[in-house]
Amino acid sequence: xSFDKLWPLLAQGAADTLYMTLWSAFFAYLVGLPLGVxxxxxxxxxxxxxxxxxxxxxxxxxxxxxIPFIILLAMLFPVTRAVMGRAIGTRAIIFxxxxxxxxxxxxMVEGSLDEIDHGILEAAQAMGSTNLQIIxxxxxxxxxxxxxxxxxxxxxxxxxxxxMASAAGGGGLGALAITKxxxxxxxxxxxxxxxxxxLLVQLITVSGTRLTKWVDHRKK
Amino acid sequence: xxTIAETAWPDQSDNRAAVHPHIALRGLSKVYPMADGxxxxxxxxxxxIEKGDIYGIIGMSGAGKSTLIRCLNRLDTPSRGQVLVDGQxxxxxxxxxxxxxxxxxxxxxxxxxxxxxxxxxxxxxYPLEIAGVPRKQADARVxxxxxxxxxxxxxxxxxxxxxxxxxxRVAIARALASNPEMLLCDEATSALxxxxxxxILALLQQINLTLGITVVLITHEMTVIRQxxxxxxxxxxxxxxxxxxxxxxxxxxxSQAGRRLFGVLPSETEAQPEKPAxxxxxxxxxxxQPIISQVSRETGVDVxxxxxxxxxxxxxxxxxxxxxxxxxxxxxxxLTHALAQYNLTIEEVNPQ
Lengths: 220, 352
Description:
Chain A is an all-alpha fold. Chain A is built from nine helices and no strands. Chain B is α/β, with parallel strands linked by helices. Chain B has twelve helices and 14 strands. In chain B, a hairpin with a 2-residue loop joins strand 9 and strand 10 (239-245). The model of chain B is unreliable at 1-17 (pLDDT under 50).
């Protein structure tokens, strides 16, 4: 296939992939970030200990994380239809992607916040901070480099999930590779769209690493 | 209105100070329940700290001193007893009363605990931000505080770009931002080299003198106590072994823990000499007398000093000296007799 015909397909595919990935990541963080904060602060010995709540929340998150995306996609069809207006298509698949990604994001955020030295939190407490002040002025700002690094990993994971969109009539580079490339035996498209996916993942990873280094003031 | 408020306020605080000690611990106990039995970190500690004191709490590691200072601002919750600040029990305060008390009772730490993602200036501004001080006013105060600790040129630096001593100065500036009446120092100089320790101690003393801030510090180093404290308490196994003015406690130390800390008793970690030796214990002898030199001259015996750990205090010497045991029996007898005349205690130390 000539490059002239291939290029528009790839451009559309990349646009659809980014559309699904970035919106899903945005909403997954909207839900997952506060949950990650709760997972950390409700632990024993942290600023708002609530062991029972912590165990319950952890259990729910583990449950959601253990369902494979392709099965979750099918299970959620009725809910997706109710929320997004329809169950299939590039836009509709954002909903199952969010449901699949937010527990993952919550665990990533938990890991980042876990790195913060407990001494810094105690100093904040000793200065008479409220819990909200500790969360927004100490815990989250101190974790920013690690949170950005985690976000880059989360986004690439969501991007990989979005490649399964073809199973629900969605678009993107993954769908392009499977429907036009694999099923119609057009190897140019299969390899070109796969390469484009690899490039996108590289781009996100490298910019994530660069940004992390740039905002990190812990080491000179 | 303002004049009334201004005149009324000092009277009130004077009354308060007269009725209640600044900080008082009453029967303070802390027990950590463990699988193989309870660990008692603090055992019925009673302690009184007055306004303007630089109160040192000293003990070996595991003596409970860290738990004690953390109970003062309720970073640790005691199992029993009271922590009274101007007569108010810190343990019975609600969350907002506790926060208000913590702002009057700043704290610095061994590991500094600065915000690594914020500049020096923003670290110092943090207590002002959380107290809702307007930005301009807060920035002016930050300038003032950085000047006080001698770090005006580091305002835009990040903590990772500073030395340990500079980090502790930032922590001190941050602690002073909320105009506290008390400053708690949790092993504040233990991570610093001796020279930096001196400068930080001098800064703490200056703060105590010029701002009238009561300083409570815990340490395992006798030199820290000797250098800046006016009162001292010795903790041993969670119990208060001794307390009083530094002069009193140094001169008439009664407890085993105190004698060990002052070097009058051998420390548990003392290195064993390779050859038979003698331990000479100085327990308040006149420091200005050159005893060893005199004894050596009088007896004609050369004294080989292996180690010495003597603290002069108020013109008296406390501590011990290890000398090689003379191999010649006559020399040994002459030397021990001469030393005994100065009321020095002499013990044999043999290699094991």
